[in-house]
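Anyone up for a design puzzle?
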């Protein structure tokens, strides 16, 4: 497989982490948003972009799920239908609820061209993040895993999102930090953060 990412950590880190967890061989291509090779695959110039033979995937949650589906022994994607439903719920929650206020703040601070920014939106984003974080905290169980009895891409994306939240200076409760800490200490993430391919 071939994974396009940027030099800096991005949502492509999620996919690289999943590839490392699954023990799949991959090539890591360091691109930039205007890279013609990346744009030919994803005209938005965004990462991650994952190529597996004829299959070209964008969207970090879909890419992680593909990696786990292709390596069923990894356990990264549950096969039990009830567990799979809860896994899908968490992935949608992380990408459409928890992460969006963070992304909104980033767009208002630096990601969007100045003429499209509306800095007043940042206070609303912080309020919205707090609501979603409270939802997550409410639904945490006793154990370390969101779904079933083993580490899945739901834990991976949840922990990655919370570490991004701390970097973006959102308020993350002690309970959520304690939940994320063992996942963020996994050796596969350390390997995924190493520079180069
Ligand atoms: N929903 C997408 C978001 C992808 C995305 O926005 N990636 C950022 C990096 S984290 C990017 O490529 N930004 C470059 C740009 O917007 O030009 C996903 O989860 O993969």
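Challenge accepted. My sequence:
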């Amino acid at each position: 497989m071939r994974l396009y990412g940027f030099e800096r950590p991005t949502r492509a880190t999620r996919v690289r982490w999943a590839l490392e967890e699954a023990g799949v061989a991959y090539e890591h291509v360091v691109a930039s948003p205007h890279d013609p090779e990346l744009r030919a695959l994803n005209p938005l110039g965004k990462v991650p972009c994952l190529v597996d033979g004829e299959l070209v995937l964008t969207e970090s949650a879909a890419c992680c799920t593909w990696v786990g589906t292709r390596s069923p022994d990894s356990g990264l994607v549950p096969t039990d239908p009830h567990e799979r439903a809860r896994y899908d719920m968490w992935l949608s929650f992380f990408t459409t609820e928890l992460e969006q206020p963070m992304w909104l703040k980033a767009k208002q601070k630096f990601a969007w061209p100045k003429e499209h920014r509306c800095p007043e939106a940042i206070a609303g984003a912080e309020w919205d993040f707090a609501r979603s974080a409270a939802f997550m905290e409410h639904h945490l169980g006793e154990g370390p895993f969101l779904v079933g009895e083993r580490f899945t891409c739901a834990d991976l994306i949840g922990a990655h999102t919370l570490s991004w939240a701390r970097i973006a200076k959102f308020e993350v409760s002690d309970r959520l930090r304690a939940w994320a800490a063992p996942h963020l200490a996994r050796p596969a993430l350390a390997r995924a953060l190493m520079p180069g391919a």
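A detail worth pointing out: The mean pLDDT is 96.
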